[in-house]
Amino acid sequence: MAKTELCPCGSNKTYDECCGAVILGKRDATTAEELMRSRYTAYVKHEIDYIVATCDNSDKKTQIDYNQTKKWAEESQWLGLEIVRTEAGTENDKRGVVDFIANFRNSKGVKEEHHEIAEFEKINGKWLYINGRFAPVQQVVRPTAKVGRNEPCPCGSGKKYKHCCGA
Predict the structure, then answer these.
(1) What is the mean pLDDT of residues 24-37?
(2) CA distance 167 to 160
(3) How far is CA 142 from CA 119, 146, 152, 153, 157, in A?
């Protein structure tokens, strides 16, 4: 990556002054959000060893599948990271939560979003990814009743909906 190329995490800093320094071990992430950003960037750069190293692997149930993670990272085209919100996770905290959306195109070229609420913990002075869960899907609620195909069009034309705006 060129020294002037922007970091994939969306910070508007160069890769070297942002996530590159963390991924290459030149410094540790100082916040849960910074660790989250560096982990996203590691997916973009296929730095699977870093992703594994920044997970709390003390529980066998939560250990990461290296090969599956590598496959997903390499087969996806990463489109951007959006931090929705954070809870705690500052330099002085022991725990933190980062709600994020990672946008990508899957191996079939279909655009998807991975919306996760990730939990982080500072263990021995280093932030680690502990657990994550998919964010709840928001149900879409119509503000007005649905118009049936054979009902009059709400635009006022006098035609049936299916022959007017519903065509």
Answers:
(1) 97
(2) 10
(3) 33, 8, 19, 17, 22
Write out the two tokens for 20.
């590159």
Average confidence score pLDDT of the chain: 92
What's the rounded Cα separation, in Å, for the pair 2 and 25? 18
Residue 150 one-letter amino acid: N
Cα-Cα end-to-end distance for the chain? 50
**What are phi and psi for residue 93, nearest 5 degrees?**
-90, 160
Distance CA 137, CA 132 (A): 15
Q: What is the pLDDT of residue 4?
A: 79
* Rounded Cα gap, residues 112 and 98, in angstroms: 19
pLDDT in tens, 66-86: 999 999 999 999 999 999 999
